[in-house]
Amino acid sequence: MPDHGFFVTGEPMIYMADVLIVLVTLGIIFVLTYFKKWRWLWDEWLTTVDHKRIGIMYIISALLMLFRGGVDALLMRTQLAWPGLNFLNAQHYDEIFTTHGTIMILFMAMPFIVGLMNVAVPLQIGARDVAFPELNAVSFWLFFAGAMLFNISFVIGGSPDAGWTSYTPLAGNELDPGPGENYYLLGLQIAGIGTLMTGINFLVTIIKMRAPGMTLMKMPLFTWSTLITSVIIIFAFPVLTVALALLTIDRLFGAHFFTVTAGGMPMMWANLFWIWGHPEVYIVILPAFGIFSEVISTFARKRLFGYRAMVYSMVAISALSFIVWLHHFFTMGQGPWINSFFGVSTMLIAIPTGVKVFNWLLTLHKGRIEFTQPMLWALAFIPSFLIGGVTGVMLAAVPADYQYHNSYFLISHFHYVLIGGTVFGCFAGLTYWWPKMFGHKLDERLGKWAFWVFNIGFHLCFIPMYLVGLQGMTRRIYTYPAETGWGPINMVETIGAFIMGIGFLIFCYCVYYSARFGERDVTGDAWDGRTLEWSLSSPAPHYNFAHIPKVEALDAWWHMKKEKGKKKEKPEPYKPIHMPNNTGMPIVMSAFMFVAGFGFVFEWYLLAIGGLIGVLLCMLWRSFNDYDSHHYVSVEEIKKHEMAS
Fold first, then answer.
1. Residue 478's closest CA among 150, 178, 80?
2. Which has the closest alpha carbon to 94: 465, 477, 411, 409?
3. Do 367 and 331 form a contact (C-beta atoms < 8 A)?
4. Global pTM value
5. 31 has which bridge partners?
């Protein structure tokens, strides 16, 4: 990797990015100053511990990262649109292809999913907040600090360029000197600590804070998927933490955990990375399964078919996800018995995954289907994920994988799984819970335009990749000769990618238009929903429930609506509600963590130690200054809000 110097220079696109960063920053400062919103921003958002607002901040961050990762994708597709192009040089292409994969998996899909968890899960289980509200804020701000540290690399110091998997020895100091790989290691480490905290928080929340009567088998499917995902996070993310720490120590302090000539083992990185990396795939897809279950059940106007089978299949997937990691390097010289075991386990995991498809189809059978925006995303997911799943089973056959593995066939497979699964799930969940977050629906006409344009572009981009992969086009190349005949297919893929970008821009306009003119949700039950979040006003009050509901059946709110009027119960009197105070500690501590990370990236150890001391002081302050961390919502305030809603 070339030495970029402190500021990256020599690239016109980098200069354009510098100008845009400055202009956007000045614009934000001007707007906040002109409208006198600094105090509002600090009090209402930057210091909030309200799970709903933290969820919204996660989602906004994820959409920004989707834009950044999407621009990277369009730059790559432009370079590959035709043989012999020199739109990007080899080094710049390597950097963009590394940041695209890393951002989309860890800084887009993860926060999008966690944001939807924050918005919906406490409401679905009848809780007033998560178990550890302040820790929840720390989780978000650590993710944000890690994401910002990673993203400034392209203008300061230079981006990482060893691929999103950062295999050793390619990612070691000898072959990849400079700060780029350090940004990767430190950014992921900081964000990963926040994600681990999230897993612990939601596990405790769901186990300990469910409403009276809500047994495990009366929980909504999205809550079940969040519970199982939290368990996977708790077991998988410490492995990533260890792997990142070992490679950081190698790079910064001259250790040799991954150096063959010094007694290390490069393959240990691949094992550690994928022991985390394959469960990570299910961390981002299982909550999407939960979202599709909620959406399909709601808009088919039917109870989900095979609820228990869905739960058991998700539990099976979570267990199997930890014994399939080696299929990511079938081609790296393992023995036939090892390859056979992991090939069979990979095929086996397709069974509980396939069960879900039949559950969703049978839920739709004889349903009164309403084709809303969330439902369209859910229905489009089924054939898309099926294509990705079937080709995944093809890749599980070890002899076939030797041919497919390093080709665009594999690229298409995991994009069909991650876009057709996770991204479609994120948009289904976002459009479904949008009224609960903001009090209005997204415009149906514009939303459906965004859906169809994005969907057409998606298939136009990625179906040809299967074909060009079978023709022999290998991944991780930045150009190719005309004699291969791959040019026309790559041009079609590039057109499809730009159509997807247009679909995303239409969605952004839909958000703006709907905020001004969208249909207001005055009932709180925008979709005639089935779960408890739809029993509240939209947006939900900061204390969520004036009275904690009593759950008697699966689809608790649907059951309550059916039983309404059959039983006359005397209204319970309101009582003061205990709620946590807002606090600036999480954002301050994460800022110190950012400083420490930046210091380690450039090996400025005094700055790094100063940042770590700041983090420690924040922890000490939190430990010994916990006397004013809560308040009570008065009965008068509760009555006022409940009467207004």
1. 80
2. 477
3. no
4. 0.96
5. none
d(CA 148, CA 142): 10
Contacts with 22 (C-beta within 8 Å, 6 or more apart), sequence order? none
Q: Which residue in the block uniquely carries the two structure tokens 């950062």? A: 166
Concatenated DSSP letters of 231-271: HHHHHHHHHHHHHHHHHHHHHHH---TT-GGGT--HHHHHH
Cα(122)–Cα(130) distance, integer angstroms: 6
- pLDDT, average across residues 501-511: 98
Q: What is the pLDDT of residues 202-237, one digit of tens each?
A: 999 999 999 999 999 999 999 999 999 999 999 999
User: Which tokens belong to 398?
Assistant: 């070890």
Give the Å distances, CA to CA, from 340 to 243, 326, 335, 513.
Answer: 26, 10, 9, 54
Express each pLDDT in 247-278 by its tens digit.
Answer: 999 999 999 999 998 999 999 999 999 999 99
Q: Are 145 and 593 in contact (CB under 8 A)?
A: yes
How far is the C-alpha of 601 from the C-alpha of 597, rounded, in Å?
6
Residue type, 282: Y
DSSP category for residue 103: I
Q: Name residue 470's amino acid.
A: L
- 85 exposed, middle or buried (CB, 10 Å; 0-12, 13-18, 19+)? middle
d(CA 485, CA 547): 67
